[in-house]
């Protein structure tokens, strides 16, 4: 049965196809099955094909759609995680558990372990800081806290030097749950993450998580936005391009990413900066072929720009960009 908020969105679709070229899986496959329009038809007619599983949940089609179809409502209603994915989502909710699980999986020699090792090079226990009378809460995001601890540490040390008292909140915003159709579980995870936030000022270090939380009504700033608000700009110091994480771009955060960089003379032109990185949350783990093709296409765009470094403020994007040998830094790595 189609959920009512999804049905409304399905009915808004006029099948014009304006969304097709914005969809990374359509661009790669040129198949209607792997396009937003095809997927909407599948859900409407209750058909079964690969298209539902191959959606990267990037929501680029929503930006392109002139009829205002909120596609995410359709795809979340059509997906249900299997037991394996449910366990994975539960693991993301506890970054310490994510650390232990990743360490264990990386030791294996199965297909899943090999895939994880292709993307993840460093695993650390999440940084924990809870200063007395904290006046700034830092939400790293589950992937950031476990696979990019050095970035979190650098941001926190910069903020402390700037006079803030920090509390880190480790956990998962629930975006990964939404992408798998586990809306209720995602909301529970988000509520747990922000339960102590109340009116405290909070920043998030993973731009797609920032966007997801804001969409769910949580008052949180992206690091880039916070830097601008506090009059800080970073210097890259070499030719660079800025990757726009998909959900952050939908939320209008790309403008802050751009504004937070001082040496614009070093910025190179890149075709379609918000083109998917290829990670798609956990998509890369379960859809190797399409994921690798999207990564390759993104890689081509970056290399054509002649940039030496890519600025990425979303950790799963950074993992995918690094996989193809690109040098990637977060704005937080450039703070001194
Ligand atoms: S989702 Fe929007 S852009 Fe895509 S086919 Fe439907 S109406 Fe057209
Ligand atoms: S969410 Fe992304 S991958 Fe899925 S249909 Fe829309 S553009 Fe394509």
TrEMBL record:
SUPFAM superfamilies (alphabetical): alpha-helical ferredoxin
Residue ranges occupied by any 4Fe-4S ferredoxin-type domain in the UniProt entry: 4-33, 45-75
GO MF entry, a single one: metal ion binding
Keywords attached to this entry: 4Fe-4S, Iron, Iron-sulfur, Metal-binding, Repeat
Organism: Sulfuracidifex metallicus DSM 6482 = JCM 9184
Protein name as annotated: 4Fe-4S dicluster domain-containing protein
